[in-house]
Structure formats: C-alpha cells, structure tokens
Amino acid sequence: MNRRRIALTLVASTATLPALAGCQAVDSVVDYFGPRPENRLLMLADAAATDALALSGVDDHAADLRNAQADALYAEITRLCGTNDAGNAPRSCEVERPTKANRAADSGEIMENAASATTAAADEVTVESRALVTEQAIALNAWLPGDAPDIPELSQPEQKSAADLLSWEYEQAFGLDFARAYVGPEHEDNVDHRLEVHHRRIDALQEALSRYGNVPQPEPAYSSGDQDLPHDSASALGFIGGLAEQDSRKWSAAASQAAQEETPDQEWVTWLIGIAAESHGMR
Hints:
Elements: H1 2-14, H2 22-33, H3 39-55, H4 60-81, H5 107-121, H6 130-143, H7 156-180, H8 188-210, H9 233-259, H10 266-281
Helix pairs in contact: 3-4, 3-5, 4-6, 5-6, 6-9, 6-10, 7-8, 7-9, 9-10
Signal peptide: 1-21
InterPro entries: Ferritin-like, Ferritin-like_SF
Keywords: Signal
C-alpha cells in the first residue's frame, strides 16, 4: 500500500511538469525532484561572497578570508548535492554567486556580523558541515579584538570535556613556565602574556567545575609530547611555537566535536569557539 501511494504521488507530481520528450523530460524531472542546496549553508556562502566584494579595496586581508570561506562553502554545497561524471552538480543544486555589493566603510562591522552569524550556525547546519562552519567561526572570531566569552553552566558530558581541557591547560602552563627559564629577556613579556591567558582559562574552568564537585588538580610535572624540552633560547622559542600550534588544534577540535553532538549546547559551543579563536590568534 505504501509503495502504491508513493507511485501515485510521483505520477501526480510529474503530471504537473511541462510536456517534454527524451533528455529534456529527464532533465525536468531531475530539476523538479533533484537535491537542493542546504539553505543555511547557502545563506552563509552568499554572505561570505558579498562580504568579500564589499571589503575589496577596503581591507584586502579580510576580503581574502571571506572569499576563501565563500569558496569553501560553495564547494561544500556541491559536495552535499553530489556531482555527475563531469564533476558538475545537478541543475537543481546550482547556485548563483553574488557579483555586486556596496563597498564597506570599514571592515569591523562586517567581520563582527560575519563572526556572529557563523558562530550561531556552527551547530545548526547539517552535521556533515559543522566542522567546516566551526573552523570558519574560529577564524572570524580570531580576527576580532576582545576577550573570550564567559564560560556557561555545564551539562554532565560538558563537565567531562571541561575536565580534560583543564588538564590540558595545566600542561600548557607547565610547558610555558619551563620554557621561560631559557628565553632571553626580550621574549619574557610574550611568554608572560601567554601564561596569563592560560591561567585565565584555568581559573574559569576550575570555577565552573567547582560547582559540580570534583576539580582536577595539576600534576607535579608533564611530558613534552612530541617536542624535546628546550635547552637554550632558540629551542625555547621553537618549543613555545609548538605549544601554540598544539593548543590551537586542541581547542578547535573541542569546538568542532561539541558542535557535532546530537543536541549541541550553543552556549558551550560558542565558548569553545571563543577560546579556540584566542588560541588561533596566539599562534
């Protein structure tokens, strides 16, 4: 019965299509029933393309970022729709990229709006695309001045993630403290700034976790992972750079994973994106 109902529905629907023959008829059916661009992704892609046009000649670095993000989003739309042997998306999934935009007065407002919209969409687009959108939200938030947002209340799964991230922050602070002993005086302020950022995160995570009981405490010492511990100024600077890269990857992965949960908590995702953006900016 269900099969017959579906068949009758298809017959009734195709009857409304233009009377065409051969390949034209097939194309019309594909256009009518074929895949469509994911609406949220299309909105983000069009916004990125429009921003790139508006920023061109005003802030070329921002324009390049938004143009690259638009390219990635349009490519993602095509990937989700699927392609034929020639690598083309179905006609039902074709999109027209914006070609005109009013020139921006400055980049600040445009980038702030882009960061806000992309962050909000990180857990709203299709699950397959959330890693991409989260990555773009991190890059946009890293572009903006200001501190990361306040940490929200934590669910039980988020408490586990927060505890892992707290242990990670202890490890980062230990590594920076160790490296500081070897850098020259001209680099001490930079190391102290990085330590301040990590201690601020430690304080936020400790306070958040203390509401629920158990708070992980720092170990007496930590391994240096894939890096050799520094022994002079040059190796200390390389070590610090390696820590920054690892930290950026750690927080970006945490944000992406949180966004891909079945029922993501937007406040938690937003906080993770903010911290990942902070790490991104310190690389």
